[in-house]
Amino acid sequence: MVRVDGGGDGTSLVTVRNLGKTYRRGSEEIHVLQGLNLDVDPGDFVAFMGPSGSGKTTLLNLLGGLDVPTTGSIRVAGDEITSMSAGKLTAWRARHVGFVFQMFNLLPVLTAYQNVELPLLLTRLSRRERREHVETALAVVGLADRMHHYPRELSGGQEQRVAIARAVVTDPTFLLCDEPTGDLDRRSADEVLEMIAQLVSEYRKTVLLVTHDPRAAERAHVLLHLDKGVLVEAQRADLVR
Amino acid sequence: MAIPLIYNVRSIRRRWTSSIVAVLGIAGAVGVFVAMLAMARGFQATLVQSGSPGNALVMRAGASSEMVSAVTLDQERIIESAPGVARHDGQPIVSPEVIVMAPFPLVSTGTDANVQVRGVSARALEVRPTVHMLAGRFLRAGLNELVVGRNAVNTYQGLGLGRTVTFGGGTWTIVGVFDAGGTAFDSEVWADATILDQVYNRPTNIYQSVTIHLTSPAAFQAFKDALIADPRLNVDVQQEQEYYRKQSQALTTLITVLGTIVGAIMGIGAVFGALNTMYSAVAERAREVATMRAIGFGPLSVVVSFMIEAIVIAGIGGILGGLAVLPLNGFTASTLNFQTFSNIAFAFRVTPGLLAGGLLFALFMGLVGGTPPAIRAARRPVSVALREL
Ligand SMILES: Nc1ncnc2c1ncn2[C@@H]1O[C@H](COP(=O)(O)OP(=O)(O)OP(=O)(O)O)[C@@H](O)[C@H]1O
Ligand SMILES: [Mg+2]
Question: What pTM was estimated for this model as a whole?
Answer without folding.
Answer: 0.82
